[in-house]
Each structure stands twice: as structure tokens, then as C-alpha cells.
Amino acid sequence: MMNASTATAEARNGTIDPEEAAHFGRLAAEWWDPRGESAMLHRLNPVRLAYIRNAIDHHWPEAGAARKPLAGRSAIDVGCGAGLLTEPLARLGAKVTGLDAAAENVAAAVAHASAVGLTVDYRCADIETLEGEQFDLVTSMEVIEHVTDPAAFVAALGRVLAPGGLMLLSTPNRTTMSRIMLVEAAERIGQVPRGTHDWHKFLTPEELSDLLSAAGLSVIDTRGIAWDPIKGLHLSDNVALNYLMTVVRT
Question: Which of this chain's residues are annotated to bind S-adenosyl-L-methionine (predicted)?
């Protein structure tokens, strides 16, 4: 028996650039196609999920090897797109909210979750518009490099993190390697849609750590996402291309 996901729209008053939202909205129809314009995300998602599961197990060790370690906990995926990460969080047992600024992405997310029998509270909204809600787990993957005010965005993420909660972030690093690999090469060969990245908006780990600290948050772990011809994308100590962070309240 299928469980229908829901979608609600809220007034825009946040840090997501409308042009960025429109760009990703145009990709909605192919978001779930592993050979489409979002192919890179499909390769990236298993790497992110491995890191996320490990962080969850360390933060809530009482869950042990449970199949649903997020059972009884709430989660929000900020900048969820069509739900590539949001759905796995639901499968891990969480009561999940997915936020995205592009209505087309939210519609695609609702349709896909309903088709596979998952219940997710999808909303077309910016994180800054949420009031009075907090979540045990806050995730935002490859989003902060698309916002107009990273400090305000990070502060909003911090406001929705419940006491004792866990935040997980990922974003490209601003290095020569990321410029060559993510902007010039990946967009040229079609692994990433043209116009997806503005290298100048990438944040270094030090810059993001400072923003998090200013918002009353602490980074407790940083891992890189690297690439090579044999392993493909994989977790690494090398943060030059892309990195993940585990964050808690200070």
C-alpha cells in the first residue's frame, strides 16, 4: 500500500538565488535518471550516504546496527532536489521533511516518493522561512555554494537543529582542482549541467567552519570526496575537490 507524500508552498524570503532555483527546476524531469543530466549526483549519493550512516551510528550509538537507526527521530533535507538523499533518510526510519526552492523539484520528489511508497513532507520553501520547528538531523548537500548569503543560510540551519542533534553538510572546495574538475571538465563533458557552478562561490573548509562557529556550531569531523579513474568518487582525506562535515551545537 502506497503512502502519499505531501508538498506545500511557502512565500520566498530566503537566501536561494531565484536564478539558481530556476536552473535546478529545469533539471527536475531528469533528476532520477542516472544517465541524465544529474548523473554526477547519482555517483555522488552512495559516497555521501556512507558518510551519513557512519555519522549517525557514532552520534546515536544506541541505535547500533539497526536497519532503521533514525526511527523515532525527525530529519530535514535542505535543498533536497527531487529527493535522492531524502528518500534514504526516510528508509532509515526518520520522519523526514524535504525543502527545495524549485517547485518543479518538489513536484518530482512527491511523485517519486509516492510511487515507491514513502511518506515525506516536501515543501517548496527556503530554510529561512521555517519558524518554530526543529529537527534531530539536518542535512544540506551541495547547497551552500548556491545561496546569496552563506552566513544567513548557516544561521538558519543552526536554528532548526534540535538540542543534541546532528548536522551533515557537503560542498565543493574552492581550489584549482575543483575549478578544473567540477566546473571546466564536468560541465564540458555533460556530467554536470552547464551553468551549475560558480567557482567563486565555493567555500573552503576553513571559511565554512568560521561561519558555523559564528552560528554557535562546531565541526567535529571533515572528510573529502575525491576521484580517481579506478575508485571513482570515494571518501578520502583529500578535501581539494569536495568535502563533507559533521556538525553539532557548540
Answer: 48, 79, 100, 141
Prediction pTM value: 0.88
Q: Which three cell numbers stand for residue 4?
A: 502519499
Closest CA to 170 of 142, 197, 150: 142
On whether residue 188 sits in a domain, the answer given is yes
Does 136 map to a domain?
Answer: yes
- Return d(Cα 72, Cα 13) in angstroms, integer: 31
The annotated binding site is made up of 48, 79, 100, 141
Q: What CATH number is attached to the domain comprising 159? A: 3.40.50.150
The answer to whether residues 225 and 170 touch, using CB atoms and an 8 Å cutoff, is yes
**Annotated binding site for S-adenosyl-L-methionine, which residues?**
48, 79, 100, 141
Q: How remote is the C-alpha of 25 from its chain's centroid?
A: 16
Q: Which residues contact 230 (CB under 8 A, 6 or more apart)?
A: none
Mean pLDDT of 1-13: 50
Q: CA–CA distance from 229 to each of 82, 226, 232 (Å)?
A: 28, 11, 6
Contact 6, 122 (CB under 8 A): yes
How many distinct structural domains can be found in the chain? 1
Give me 129's grid cell: 522561512
Could you tell me the residue range of the domain that residue 188 belongs to? 6-249
Residue at 1 is within a domain? no
Q: How many whole angstroms separate alpha carbon 6 and alpha carbon 11? A: 17
Map residue 85 onto helix, strand or coil: coil
Q: Is 107 within the bounds of a domain? A: yes
